[in-house]
Design a protein that fits this description.
The structure is a single chain. The chain has one domain: Four Helix Bundle (Hemerythrin (Met), subunit A), CATH 1.20.120. With 108 residues, the chain is mostly helical.
């Protein structure tokens, strides 16, 4: 497993995004599927969660902080049963991570 918290976050979000892009929010199993996808994301980032929090705390308006916020929002929306909103927040989290590529690896 990669020790770089940002690399783990990127990989987990990319995997989750790929899964939800194929998801039909109107399908009967959509709510369970997005919950499963977000649980997989959470399990993947769990080993580096402290490192991610440190990066987010160091740069509160940075891409890591934004991505983590969007992923929390996605989880909240999924728990409330709004699959489409959960997808949107997950995609927003992935978009926030694009800022890291432009800003460099120290841009927490």
């Amino acid at each position: 497993m990669d020790d770089d918290p940002v690399a783990v976050l990127r990989a987990a979000v990319d995997c989750a995004v790929q899964a939800v892009l194929r998801l039909d929010p109107r399908h009967a199993d959509a709510r369970q599927e997005i919950t499963r996808v977000l649980a997989g994301y959470a399990a993947t980032v769990a080993p580096v969660r402290d490192g991610l929090r440190e990066l987010a705390d160091r740069t509160p308006n940075g891409p890591v902080s934004a991505a983590l916020g969007f992923l929390r929002d996605a989880d909240d929306q999924a728990a409330a049963g709004d699959v489409q909103a959960a997808r949107v927040f997950l995609l927003a989290g992935r978009t926030a991570l694009f800022r890291l590529a432009r800003a460099g690896p120290d841009a927490g």
